[in-house]
Task: inverse folding
């Protein structure tokens, strides 16, 4: 019986890491200034947040600030390594860690984001870290383009989503020399309704021109999915202009999905303006009464003073 118990404990020791371990998909060597990128997966009790991620230089925690988002059941992380000295580092997630090294080499360029979530044309900012010009190769939607950056130049590379007709998951490739960034991009395309004629939409795109915007992911957007509907994500699509989401949100296959609670929006802004208007009006009336009372009091005081002096 004792032998069976020992064998069972040894079995658990071997099988438990397979169940709980975090799987890291990342490089083990990064050049100086290179943008750190990683993809992680695992059976987490709750969705990962920034608070679950920490970086260490040797055995001391270091100030590398990550960004994270969940895309199709996997978590994508990026962080800037600018000004980090060459040494041995590690990333720690939920108790599991992965070692990596920042080498003596200087990266050709850095990027300002490691993932994209957008429903508009957008841009990614790149920075040449070399003392000479470099050529960056851009690949997106089977199209290629070369971008030249002067020494230490920072430039915005624009991307258009006009050719994407439905919500999709794409990969952006930016490369120069021996460095290649593969950037996951979740492109959300709202479903057209019958009241939106195709020709009007096309005309609007042609006249508005290309106007890329900065990638801004709302803080409450924690995940995106191209395969699951909002109902499958156990959420609800709040009624536009009538409800707001209290809690976390996600981009689902069929729209922006509230993972919290949809609450009715009130006309609190209008009442605030009306309230301030009433308050200012009351203050003006009180000020007017006070001024009038002060003038009357001043006249009476002068009359008493004059009478008193005459009596004396």
Result:
């Amino acid at each position: 019986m004792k032998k069976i118990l020992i064998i069972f404990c040894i079995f658990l020791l071997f099988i438990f890491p397979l169940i709980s371990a975090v799987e890291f998909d990342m490089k083990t060597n990064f050049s100086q200034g290179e943008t750190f990128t990683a993809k992680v997966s695992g059976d987490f009790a709750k969705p990962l947040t920034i608070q679950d991620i920490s970086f260490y230089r040797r055995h001391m925690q270091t100030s590398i600030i990550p960004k994270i988002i969940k895309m199709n059941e996997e978590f994508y992380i990026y962080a800037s390594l600018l000004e980090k000295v060459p040494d041995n580092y590690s990333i720690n997630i939920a108790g599991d860690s992965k070692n990596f090294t920042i080498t003596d080499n200087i990266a050709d360029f850095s990027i300002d984001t490691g993932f994209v979530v957008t429903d508009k044309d957008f841009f990614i900012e790149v920075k040449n870290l070399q003392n000479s010009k470099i050529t960056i190769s851009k690949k997106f939607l089977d199209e290629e383009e070369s971008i030249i950056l002067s020494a230490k130049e920072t430039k915005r590379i624009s991307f258009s989503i006009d050719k994407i007709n439905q919500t999709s998951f794409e990969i952006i490739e930016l490369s120069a020399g021996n460095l290649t960034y593969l950037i996951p991009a979740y492109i959300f395309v709202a479903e057209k309704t019958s009241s939106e004629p195709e020709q009007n939409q096309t005309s609007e795109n042609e006249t508005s021109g290309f106007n890329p915007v900065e990638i801004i992911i709302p803080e409450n957007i924690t995940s995106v999915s191209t395969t699951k509907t909002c109902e499958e994500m156990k959420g609800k699509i709040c009624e536009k202009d009538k409800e707001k989401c209290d809690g976390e949100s996600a981009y689902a296959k069929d729209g922006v999905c509230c993972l919290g609670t949809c609450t009715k929006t009130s006309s609190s802004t209008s009442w605030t303006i009306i309230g301030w208007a009433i308050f200012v009006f009351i203050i003006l009336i009180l000020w007017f009464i006070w001024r009038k009372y002060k003038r009357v009091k001043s006249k009476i005081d002068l009359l008493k003073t004059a009478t008193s002096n005459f009596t004396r």
Q: What stands out?
A: The first strand starts at residue 23 and ends at 26. The domain at 22-219 is CATH 2.60.40.2950 (Immunoglobulin-like).
